[in-house]
Amino acid sequence: MAAVTALAVPLSACTSSSGGGGGGQHGSGPYGTLNVGLETLGAFACAPRLTSSADAGRSLVMSGAYDTLVRLNAQGKYVADLATSWSVDKAGTTWTFQLRHGVQFDMGYGEMTSADVVYSLEQAAAKGSLNGNAGSLDSLFKKITAVGKYTVQIYTGTPQSDMLAFLRNDIAGAAYIVSEKQAQKIGVNATDKVGCAGTGPWQFVQAKSDQYWKFKAVKTNWQQTPAFQYLTLWEVPEEATRVAEFQSGQLDIILADPDSIQTLKGTPGTEFATTPSGVDFHLGFYGNYYSVKRPGYDPSLPYVSANPNPNSAAWKRAVKVREAMSIAIDRQSIVKNLLHGDGQATALWGWGATEKYLPANVKWNYSPAEAKKLLAQAGYPHGFPVTLNIRIAGAPAEVQACQAIAEMWTNIGLKVKFENQPNDAILPSLLDRSQNGIVCQAVGDVPEPIDQYVDWEVSTAPFSGGVEDPVLDHLITQAAGTLAFTARMKIEQQIAEFNFKNALDAGVYRAEVQWPVGPNVGNVAEWVSHMDFGDGRILSGLNYVEHSS
After folding, report:
1. Is the residue at 529 inside a domain?
2. Number of domains forming the structure of the chain
3. Burial, 6: exposed, middle or buried (Cβ in 10 Å; 0-12, 13-18, 19+)?
4. Given CA atoms 361, 362, 366, 368 in this order, what sign does their dihedral have?
5. pTM to 2 decimal places
6. C-alpha–C-alpha distance, residues 275 and 76, integer Å
7. Up-side HSE of residue 331: CA atoms within 13 Å toward CB?
8. Is 132 a member of any domain?
9. Which one of 185, 254, 347, 543 has the lowest number of neighbouring Cβ atoms within 10 Å?
């Protein structure tokens, strides 16, 4: 079988348990509370079609209350979760998943079966679903069939190399599995009040908007039983407050920015858990919509072309503007001074974990002088007004980096209007394509660029990263339908070269995500070894967190 991703195992199969200790116990059983401080939680939701992929989606995945069919482990290898093995037919269009036997839903809703998997996946992909990957899932799932009690088949119509990427955990739009019986008994809307019945090592207890989500350990779960009796995710928006509550012992683990991490490195008893994957930060040149007519298309903007033909004068002028804006950014300075060296400069979005495959020429060379020349050649010797937005999503140094970029652009003559917006405030304009400013934003690492391209750079994607183009539509569709990794990567490299040549995307940095861990938590290295590859803003494997003594 062909490999699915750059880091993945063969399509056919994995039979190892992601839990490692199926039902393992910790001494006399779980006790105490593990308190985790986050910048934002979002309103609690758990029904697959009612949970957005923004803040609430990440928090829900972090809770560990719900499982997916497969996982992507720390080594970037797809391993079993609720599916013990999988295969794809010779045509590359029918995927067969064999389910784990005997897995029980909490809340007394019985054994997880193929009917629950079909229900959950169809709900996540349904029309009107709030799952950010709903459009991609709907495109993938031409038909989902329960074949007996423990087998599920998914027909995709055409070969789709990104199937497992959308069925894994540790992404905000995870296609997790819940109980169909519960939804039928109490109604889908009611599940957000009592919690959805899941198969994970934690069970929902209660949530209070803008304050906390609380879960309890499931002692009879098929995976490793948590050492802590309760897990509480706290929303603490202010960085200084999170740090203070961590230092006082009120919080055991926190999301912290790079400056706070440097401060906490001198705190006795503090360790740091670095996630296996990081966060990929870029600039989206919104308004470059050339495949389909969009409300945000405005050719009067200097970085948007009035002509979609790459050989036209209008196109070449807009390329010069975008290139000037890209090379005016001192990426190395951002990594050194804002990330304190815990990251690396990037050229394009989506390549953070696989940049070794990028063509050698794909690299932005910092040069404010050259940037000014390009602006003058494009007809803007004195610059122009530009709106720079930041989509706040909990990435390391995201606000500071975007502010630094604004200053760097000011230095080449641009009149920058800086807007600092929460994720939920700016997201609608990225979904309906009405956005035409420049947007700083970050997403979690992906195992392979195509897993991200299908989500933001093809015109049929539910979400826009700022650009749509017929050439990209063709190449991305071609890459997604190519199951052999070597052949697929060649197409992905063509996508990268097109984006770079036309300055349609500007990567900035990939950051490591370090989570300060307090003295109440022990054996951090063992816990980290059980983390999964995914969004670095999502902690995984919290059922492996041990007491310090």
Report:
1. yes
2. 2
3. buried
4. positive
5. 0.86
6. 12
7. 22
8. yes
9. 185
